Amino acid sequence: MTSAVKRSPHEGKPRLRILIGADTFWPQINGAATFIARLAGGLAERGHDVHIAAPSYSNKRLGQMVEMHEGQKMTLHRIYSWRWPGHPWLRFLLPWRIKRNSAIILERVKPDVIHFQSHIVIGRGMTLEGSKRNIRLIGTNHFMPENLLDHALIVPRFMREKAGRAAWAAAERSFMRAARVTTPTRRAAEYLEENTAVRNVVSISCGINADGYNGNLEPKPDNLIVFLGRLSEEKQIDKLIRAFAILDPTLDAKLEIVGGGELEGKLRALVASLGLDERVTLTGFVEQAQLRDALQRGSVFAMPSIAELQSISTMEAMASGLPVVAANAMALPHLVHDGENGFLFEPGNINDLAEKLTRVLTMSADDVLKFKKESLAIVAAHDIERTLDTFESLYRGEEVTDPAALGKKNESAS
Q1: What is the per-residue pLDDT across 82-112, written as a single tens digit (0 to 9) for each?
Q2: Between the N and C ends of the chain, which has fewer C-beta atoms within 10 Å?
């Protein structure tokens, strides 16, 4: 019996058959896909019967199959999908077939609960067909219209505001069918409530197994700046490269960009045009061991993204004992407490980003150590076991209190 099962408040309760609906999943690499794999793996480890409905990654492999993720076996229901035009790996389910596909999967699985991770296609099908069968519905929002529209080559820029409103209306229809709706952070919950009629959204961290990372508090021999994540427009990695280019040469800093994505070619060209080939490394997609190695070697983690509803990669950096310089945007201030475990910079401001990176790289060893310890302390609250406990409670229809919202109410009362 694992330690996770021993410390779960749900020990001894009947196991559940859980169907997770995902518009994105392995081998696609992004925050939502990573969270789904960790959630499913943790639930399977606790003894639940976990099923995932997700796009095919090859239409030669369709239907029900057993796959291994996060060290656990789970049942995948791979649905026929198309590759997104102009994108190297993004696939999407066909909207006009999703009701029929959802009905087939639900009749086959007969789940106790459906946890849909996106309203875009899978959420619509699963909530419509699940409602007909009186199956408990839990929804989690990882969606920002800006991210989707960056990939929507067929939507001209002058129509994007209208398209964004239509996307939110679609999200509202699916999430309003759910018994409870969650997001990774309180800011993300407020964002959903601001744009839809959905209320009482619960913020539940995506969670991280901090024990899987070595919180290295030792001084680093090199001034290495690390970024980890998908190379896409909203991450604003070009701003990080340009900020790096104006750092004082006496810092002898290096930048390592870990991850791959649709902008990799453009970013490599930018590095070359700035004459930074000897000081900037783009690794492309890497295995987990290489990812953790980069975080171990880093002196500071940089996250310039303006569209993070939580940022698993930032949590991974914090669990590795790194100070963080991040954009003061969306949910990043929930993780980066300015002047405590890193610094926040004005989004898109290259000079401010360069200045904040310089501050970390020139701090005394004692001050850096304080930042490292604070990163470890903050990320400890995002333990994956707590996340699993909370979702299990939601699946069973038990009452769940949003700790962030409760704290906000107490502050107002005082």
Answers
A1: 887 766 667 888 999 999 999 999 999 999 9
A2: C
In order, the DSSP letters of 97-122 are GHHHHHHHHHHHH--SEEEES-IIII
Query: CA angle, corner 301, sides to 300 and 307, nearest 5?
Result: 155
pLDDT tens digits, 169-190: 999 999 999 999 999 989 889 9
Q: Read off the amino acid at residue 50.
A: V
Measured in whole angstroms, the distance separating CA 172 from the mean position of its chain's CA atoms is 21
- Spell out the residues 6+ positions from residue 136 whose beta carbon is closer than 8 angstroms to its own: 112, 113, 114, 179, 395, 397
- Residue 319 is predicted with a pLDDT of 94
Contact assessment for residue 189 and residue 402, using Cβ atoms and an 8 Å cutoff: yes
Helical spans, DSSP H, in 196-302:
237-245, 264-273, 288-297
Residue with tokens 């201030």: 333
Provide the whole-model pTM: 0.84
Report the 10 Å Cβ neighbour count for 197.
10
Backbone angles phi, psi at 227, to 5 degrees: -120, 140
- Residue 5 binned pLDDT confidence (cut-offs 50, 70, 90): very low
Amino acid letter at 182?
T
List domains and CATH numbers for the chain. Answer: 3-207+383-410 (3.40.50.2000), 210-382 (3.40.50.2000)
Strands 72-79 and 63-69: antiparallel
